[in-house]
Amino acid sequence: MIMLAWGSFIFLLVQLAPANSIAFDDSVGYGRQFDGIGGLSGGGATSKLLINYPEQFRSEVLDFLFKPSFGASLQILKVEIGGDVQSTDGTEASHMHYSWEENYERGYEWWMMKEAKKRNPNIKLYGLPWGFPGWVGDGTGNPYHNVSKTADYIVRWINGAKSKHNLTIDYVGIWNERPYNIAYIKTLRKVLDERGFQHTQIIASDNKWEIAADLSKDAELKKIVHAIGCHYPGTYSSHEAQHVGKILWSSEDYCQKNNETGGACWARVINRNFVHGYMTSTIAWDLIASYYTNLPGWDMGLMTAKEPWNGHYVVSPPIWASAHTTQFTEIGWSYLKHGHGVGTLPKGGTYVGLVNPRRDHLTIVMESMTFEHSKCQWDWKSPFKVSPQNVSLSLEGKWAEIKEMNMWFTQLGFDGKSNIFFEKKSPLKFTRGKATVFLDLNQIITLTTLKTGRKGSYPPSPPHTEFPLPYSDNFDGYRVHEEPFYLSQQTGAFEVLTEGENGFVRQMVTQMTIPWCKSADGVKKAYNVFGEFAWTDIAVAFDFRIPTVNGSSGVFVGARANRGGCGSSTTSGIFFFALPDKFVLSTDIERKRTVMGGELSYSPGAWHRIALSVLDNTVKLSFDGHTVYHGDVPTSSSAGWAALGTDNYGLADFDNLEINSA
Ligand SMILES: *[C@@H]1O[C@H](CO)[C@@H](O)[C@H](O)[C@H]1NC(C)=O
Ligand SMILES: *[C@@H]1O[C@H](CO)[C@@H](O)[C@H](O)[C@H]1NC(C)=O
Ligand SMILES: *[C@@H]1O[C@H](CO)[C@@H](O)[C@H](O)[C@H]1NC(C)=O
Ligand SMILES: *[C@@H]1O[C@H](CO)[C@@H](O)[C@H](O)[C@H]1NC(C)=O
Ligand SMILES: *[C@@H]1O[C@H](CO)[C@@H](O)[C@H](O)[C@H]1NC(C)=O
């Protein structure tokens, strides 16, 4: 008896892997299919400034994002389906401002998708609306008022992508972080099928996991929803979602400054979304921080490029955190099973093993991010502990024959200098499938049988400089329907039109939208901010014209505008409104805090010029070259962008913009 018990004990010791050992074994089968790591352009207007970069630097930035074996080498590009609404850092243009028109030349998402495809033909494309033009809901503000109309509007965008840009949209979503509607999802599927887009899959609902309950009750719905897309899952999925038999994605994640903390956050969620939550795709908001500093979530792109006037850009830690997974996998690879190549490391941190469809390549990604250093904006759970550790790896089954694996290494230092990003180390040797690797805190290690992989580089981009002054734009030389490059639209939709040889900008929105942030769109002042947030003393002037039909009730020029995004309605600054029968000087964009006003008279249909110049507390307003006010203003805002806009949703034209130091 005693001998037997002793014998079984010995047997157990031999069978148990040594402490700190992790095994990789596919003889037990595979886990879920890997669906790719991606970035989100839009949601909103986050790529705004990139399109106007000098071609050389623009192309370099795009290489760091999309080129395989170079940088982030992204596998999915998600874009906003513009809806003329404020969607976080600005508005993106709808392909149908009005029910009777269709246009596939607006904005920059078509361009972004084509540039991504040019670099990686296998990249998957995913479109999602944040809001809609008002007509889509027949003015009710509800996109599900007539589900056929909304499905028609969305499928037209997918069709436009194909017919005008030769782009195949692989995935389409419902309504970003807003309620879904089952009848709408079913109608959308029907219209996609009717118009030849059977291959375009529906992701729902770009909110939390709540749709899992409906999927388990409704077999038809379950069949047509390809994957549940959850935002900011905090690396966990619900029990119900895990058991409903659907693919799970983190369809929006990250949301962190692209410093080392952002790199650590991104590395952590890429691994843990699968380890904890069985999510097989993770998409970063946002792809590229190409919007003015101080707009909401500034610098929260995988990298930053926000100085089109000189070409300056910064390749940030999240680019290299992405590379650890994307450069050594493809969509269609399989994760290993939990406990057989996927799990938590003995002393904290995680690892995932991935295998290609031919089952002859193995990639392992390990991360040891600490709680203190890897915070993402919206996913903070209870603290966890990670310690430095020697990890014993055990390759089993056919993998036991592997003699060495190529090794790529990142160490985050959080001091701006002791970082090592995506460095190729000498291969890790295996003896009878066994090897040990030391993993210190805040490291990423990729081990792979693939020989590919490259840390792409270009000579340093031009140095940082501020927005150049004086600046002027006559809007000639643009493509028709293009967005004015430096004007960052916060509400409304502005695009370049022409009359003979003359290019000018028109504000296009004439009706309240179906907004994403009611607070911003509800103010009905269509406006842009531009320049530096630190500007105090500045002079801004432009020509404007109110069209005789559907014209706006007036226009304004602003300085020291201190807010954008969903907070746009509460923007303070100094605003000079020129209305057909009066002028108003106000310190808020809603025209509630009026400082003074006076007489003015003009008729719609003709061009006029307004100018605002601010120096300390002294403000000078002029109209058609005549000073209408020159005096002090009690400012509520000491610095901010320049601004230009309309007094309500109505058409207005702008030309010959000039900005100067006061
Ligand atoms: C809903 O929209 C469709 C397509 O735009 C239209 O044909 C139909 O008449 C609308 N239905 C109702 C009830 O208004
Ligand atoms: C459209 O794209 C496909 C690849 O997706 C390519 O094979 C084809 O040549 C393109 N067609 C045109 C007209 O550019
Ligand atoms: C890891 O192994 C090395 C070499 O055996 C040893 O010097 C070191 O102390 C170990 N570190 C930890 C944290 O166990
Ligand atoms: C990165 O930026 C965030 C937000 O400003 C900040 O909390 C964090 O400390 C920064 N991390 C580093 C390493 O500087
Ligand atoms: C302009 O107004 C006319 C008449 O009120 C209306 O029929 C038309 O739809 C409007 N156009 C726009 C762009 O709103």
TrEMBL record:
The keyword Lipid metabolism applies. The active site is at E177 (proton donor/acceptor), E252 (nucleophile). Its EC number is 3.2.1.46. Residues 336-453 form the Glycosyl hydrolase family 59 central domain. Residues 1-19 form the signal peptide. Residues 489-660 form the Glycosyl hydrolase family 59 C-terminal lectin domain. SUPFAM superfamilies: (Trans)glycosidases, Concanavalin A-like lectins/glucanases. The keyword Translocase does not apply. GO terms for cellular component: lysosome; membrane. This is galactosylceramidase. It comes from Elysia crispata (lettuce slug).
